Amino acid sequence: MRKPLIAGNWNMHKTVAEAIEACRILETLVQDDQVETVICAPFTCLSALAALGMKKVKIAAQNMFYEEQGAYTGEISPVMLRDVGCDYVIIGHSERREYFGETDETVNKKVHTALKFDIKPIVCVGESLEQRKNGQTESLVTSQVEQAFSGVDEADAQKIVVAYEPIWAIGTGETASAEEANRVIKIIRATLKNLYSEEVAANIRIQYGGSVKLENIKELMEQSDIDGALVGGASLNPETFASMINYKSLK
Ligand code: 13P
Asked: What are 56-99's pLDDT values in tens digits?
């Protein structure tokens, strides 16, 4: 059984004080221990959030570098993320790919070093509107998944979370329909089956991301292959985000 994982990606939002306040509210409101809850906070907030000693909310970084240490001005290493108590790290978000030169090759390197330091990667894949219109969705996400998992053994592969985030649905208010998100996620699971086995693929959690909100989370979560959500804008308000995590209570 795959335990659903709902992660809030705060992007470049929140001061330390705002982050602490939001997490205190989340800790109070999150009810469902059948859902794993993760907050992907800015680097500057991570140690303050870890110091809260939260029981229901795990913390994640939104990026990291693939080297352990060295002359890489401005970068943060997996050793540093482990040091502040990060359980997860987002790798290969489309914004990193678009604005900061992330490639399938650097995604793979980051996956390997994150796993080495016991930080679970949340690997983002997804097509642009143009790629979708050109019928490239399936081949693109398959190739992104194959490259991200390259050289990762069976045991480690099952620690990775994949987030299918179609770029055209991020921050646009336009969501893939639940059926369409499930269809592409099934293709991703079939790719993982080809790379490993049916059993391994059945254990890997695959989230959907892109304009997930209170109004659509339940329908998305009810799909057969959607094991969670990577939520951007709607995760900034802790009351709203807590209601999304408690989606089973929604009508
Ligand atoms: P939105 O939920 O704001 O569309 O963002 C999705 C996202 O990119 C989460 O990583």
From this structure: 999 999 999 999 999 999 999 999 999 999 999 999 999 999 99
- The packing angle between helices 137-148 and 178-195, to 10°, is 40
Is-catalytic flag, 27?
A: no
Which is catalytic among the residues 36, 93, 95, 102?
Answer: 93
Burial class, 118, CB count within 10 angstroms (exposed 0-12 / middle 13-18 / buried 19+): exposed
**What is residue 184's predicted lDDT score, i.e. its pLDDT?**
98
Measured from the Cα of 233, ligand 1's closest atom is 3
* For ligand 1, atom 7: residue with the closest CA: 232
Decide if pLDDT at 182 tops 80. yes
Using pLDDT thresholds of 50, 70 and 90, give the confidence band for residue 172: confident
- Ligand 1 center to 74 CA (angstroms): 24
Q: What is the pTM of this model?
A: 0.97
- Rounded to whole angstroms, how far apart are CA atoms 88 and 215? 27
Q: Is 175 in the pocket of ligand 1 (CB under 6 A)?
A: no
Q: What is the pLDDT of residue 176?
A: 85
CATH of 5-249, one of 3.40.50.2030, 3.20.20.70, 3.40.50.11810, 3.30.390.50: 3.20.20.70
> Does residue 174 carry a pLDDT above 90?
no
Residue 93 annotated among the catalytic residues of the structure: yes
Q: Is the distance from the beta carbon of residue 171 to the nearest atom of ligand 1 less than 6 Å?
A: yes
* Residue closest to 246 by CA, chosen among 223, 232, 229: 229
Catalytic residue, candidates 36, 95, 102, 165: 165
CA separation for the pair 200, 221 (Å, rounded): 21
